[in-house]
């Protein structure tokens, strides 16, 4: 279980999260909805251990992240993958698509062969893999980002508006790929989107629930 409790985050004087909690169960798709600006992406960054909350507790399969004050170990961070809304902001523009996908493998000293397999599953040809981000479409780049997020076989995958601004067929393909990964690995998925229909379709088959951030503890 990926569990956050009593999470408080402020940006300067603006309190964005005022003591909220959420649970993502292995093998299930949990949905997270809420109006623009209510703090969904902020909560996603806390869950992915990229942002330290002012207060609150985060546990990954029972391991309390507060054990590490300054730097969360790479192995633990690798348990939770975060796929961002805007792939162009999430990648190094100097990298080829193969480098983008292989980056976590190289950092972990794993063979990069797995990157090519994941790319193939995402429908990325070897010709596309040699291109840089400015030479591919948003959909092709997001496919590479989804492949990258799965390289280290995370226990949890957080999709933050992953398919916003992509066409319906790319959206369907990305969701189907993540569903295949969930079913094969037993990973838990947190789906964040404004698209209520997509949330219902995505969470339904796994029996997962949909949480509304605006209905959780109000920000002070
Ligand atoms: N790094 C930051 N510095 C200052 N304010 C920020 C920062 N990141 C987010 N905010 C503010 O915090 C609030 C919550 O932002 P967040 O992106 O978490 O909301 P959201 O629910 O994901 O929004 P959306 O649905 O539009 O993506 C917003 O008012 C935003 O302007």
TrEMBL record:
Transmembrane segments: none
InterPro entries documented for this protein: AAA+_ATPase, ABC_transp_ATP-bind, ABC_transporter-like_ATP-bd, P-loop_NTPase
PROSITE patterns with a match to the protein in the record: ABC_TRANSPORTER_2
ABC transporter domain ranges (all copies): 2-220
Pfam entry (one): ABC_tran
Record keywords: ATP-binding, Nucleotide-binding, Transport
Keyword Transport included in the entry's annotation: yes
GO molecular function, one term: ATP binding
Keyword Lipid biosynthesis: no
Source organism, top-level taxon: Bacteria
Family: Belongs to the ABC transporter superfamily.
Stated name of the protein: ATP-binding cassette domain-containing protein
């Amino acid at each position: 279980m990926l569990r956050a409790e009593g999470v408080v985050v402020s940006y300067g004087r603006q309190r964005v999260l005022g003591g909220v909690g959420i649970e993502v169960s292995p093998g299930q798709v949990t949905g997270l909805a809420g109006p623009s600006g209510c703090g969904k992406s902020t909560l996603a960054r806390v869950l992915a251990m990229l942002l330290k909350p002012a207060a609150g507790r985060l546990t990954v399969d029972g391991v309390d992240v507060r054990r590490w004050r300054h730097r969360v170990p790479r192995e633990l961070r690798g348990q939770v993958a975060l796929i961002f809304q805007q792939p162009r902001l999430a990648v190094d523009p100097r990298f080829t698509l193969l480098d983008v996908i292989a980056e976590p493998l190289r950092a972990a000293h794993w063979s990069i062969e797995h990157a090519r397999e994941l790319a193939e599953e995402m429908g990325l040809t070897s010709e596309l893999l040699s291109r840089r981000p400015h030479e591919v479409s948003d959909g092709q780049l997001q496919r590479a980002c989804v492949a990258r997020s799965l390289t280290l076989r995370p226990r949890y995958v957080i999709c933050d508006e992953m398919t916003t601004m992509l066409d319906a067929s790319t959206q369907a393909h990305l969701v189907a790929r993540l569903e295949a990964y969930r079913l094969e690995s037993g990973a838990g998925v947190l789906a964040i989107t404004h698209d209520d229909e997509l949330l219902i379709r995505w969470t339904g088959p796994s029996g997962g629930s949909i949480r509304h951030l605006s209905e959780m503890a109000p920000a002070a």
